[in-house]
Amino acid sequence: MTHKYWGNVEEDWAGFSSDITFSNPFFEKQNSEVFLGEEFDEDGEEIDQPPTESKLTEFAETYQNFIENIEINIKSIQDKAFERYLKLYAHFYEDSAKSGEPALNIDNVDKHNDSIREIMYLRVLDEKTIKLSIRYALDTEHGIEFRFEDGKIAAVGGIAET
User: Fold this and answer.
1) pLDDT number for residue 14
2) Regarding beta strands 144-149 and 15-22, do their DSSP bridges make them parallel or antiparallel, or are they unpaired?
């Protein structure tokens, strides 16, 4: 299938993707995959039908809005990731008695940013929603995922938890 914005839309390893990829200098990896729609339906089955033309157009508008505001969005990712670190991880990583390692001394957003530079992929969904998944250096088992709704972060969690 071909779309005026997305170009060729094809089934990929985690749903449908296109010729369009995501790049930003904040992240180590460039040209990350952009998936279009959910990977699984409500019954947990893989979706094998590509998004409709109108869905692809809606996804294009959502993605373009995300890109137009990318600097604000990256700053939001950085801030929310650091907040999550303070809430869930700092008690362990900043206490050598608990971690058995020297404290990481991550006490600000900039120091934490190195932990969130490994983007995995981005997924554009219904209702002006985007999920951005990162391999979180401090919790590679769960990673970290940001769900944007209408241009703002609505949830932060482990991958597939938002």
Assistant:
1) 93
2) unpaired
